[in-house]
User: Which sequence fits this backbone?
């Protein structure tokens, strides 16, 4: 019995005469094996917008699909296929099964995958994408850009947090990313604040008083302020500062912002540069938390674990971590979904 067949048997999943169609969890378990060949059968354009990591692209509707698949794939290993909603991949699965391949098809396609919060990556782009669903079923996507820079996509809007173009040896081409509709800036340090980039974006910037003064524009929010951008988007500015002896000069109390962003009821805490400050006791009902971890400027791994236990979000993204070893954080937070992305 193949690895895929064994997994499906254990999960009690059904099959058809030629191939098996499985839900997201079964598909994820199956493709976690190193010997499974993962194939995205959508167009190259769709693939480039975002695909499951490790997938090769063979367009089922392009001329020569069967010949290309026979050249690229081996019958010695199982094949897992997906498309946008599952229809094209069912077609591909049938073709491959009739050619002697052991095939499973992702039920609901990549739409079901991202709706379940599973990550995708963009071809040739330096970020991963995580997708979540708001209270009324609207999709919210998060892209890890670099260090503290985040792209949030919601209902046709692109919201950037602390966008910077260059950091260390990495450079983000913002011209290849969605046009900004709103930018949140936490504070003035160069790994969070890129004046030239912001000037070129020509977009509304929400920030603290210091950065607004340096820009010569921007909507100022101070710790404790709230602002509704529209009926389904609300922003609260919360404190972000150092408390450890010998560190308070990095981020003094009252100057910088963290933000709680509510998108159709989905509550996102973007902590900015902070330690596990007492004010975190008042941060409640968080779905997704971005918590920094690069000692001595922000939190140690131990402080991040403490902050996560206090806030108790459903999902934690450690970010801003640089060379700090964060590998032990997931095991220290049972019951919280810890996702480590390339925020370096």
Assistant:
């Amino acid at each position: 019995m193949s690895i895929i067949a064994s997994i499906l048997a254990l999960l009690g999943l059904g099959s058809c005469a030629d191939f098996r169609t499985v839900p997201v969890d079964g598909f994820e378990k199956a493709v976690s094996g190193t010997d499974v060949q993962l194939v995205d059968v959508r167009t190259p354009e769709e693939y480039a917008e975002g695909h499951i990591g490790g997938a090769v692209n063979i367009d089922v509707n392009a001329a020569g699909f069967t010949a290309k698949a026979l050249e690229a794939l081996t019958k010695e290993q199982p094949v897992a296929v997906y498309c946008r909603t599952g229809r094209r991949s069912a077609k591909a699965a049938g073709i491959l099964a009739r050619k002697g391949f052991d095939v499973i098809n992702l039920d609901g396609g990549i739409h079901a995958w991202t709706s379940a919060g599973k990550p995708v990556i963009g071809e040739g782009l330096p970020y991963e994408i995580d997708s979540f669903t708001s209270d009324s079923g609207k999709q919210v996507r998060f892209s890890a850009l670099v260090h503290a820079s985040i792209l949030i996509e919601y209902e046709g809007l692109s919201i950037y947090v602390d966008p910077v173009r260059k950091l260390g040896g990495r450079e983000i081409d913002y011209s290849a990313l969605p046009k900004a509709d709103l930018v949140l800036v936490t504070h003035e340090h160069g790994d969070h604040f890129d004046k030239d980039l912001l000037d070129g974006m020509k977009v509304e910037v929400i920030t603290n008083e210091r950065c607004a003064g340096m820009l010569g524009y921007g909507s100022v929010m101070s710790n404790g302020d709230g602002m509704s951008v529209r009926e389904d988007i609300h922003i609260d500015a919360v404190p972000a500062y150092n408390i450890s002896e010998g560190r308070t000069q990095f981020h003094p109390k009252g100057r910088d912002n963290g933000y709680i962003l509510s998108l159709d009821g989905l509550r996102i805490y973007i902590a900015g540069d902070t330690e596990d400050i007492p004010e975190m006791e008042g941060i409640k009902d968080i779905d997704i938390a971005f918590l920094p971890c690069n000692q001595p400027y922000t939190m140690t791994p131990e402080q991040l674990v403490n902050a996560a236990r206090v806030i108790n979000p459903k999902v934690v993204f450690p970010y801003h971590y640089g060379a700090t070893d964060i590998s032990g954080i997931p095991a220290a937070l049972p019951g919280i979904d810890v996702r480590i992305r390339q925020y370096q």
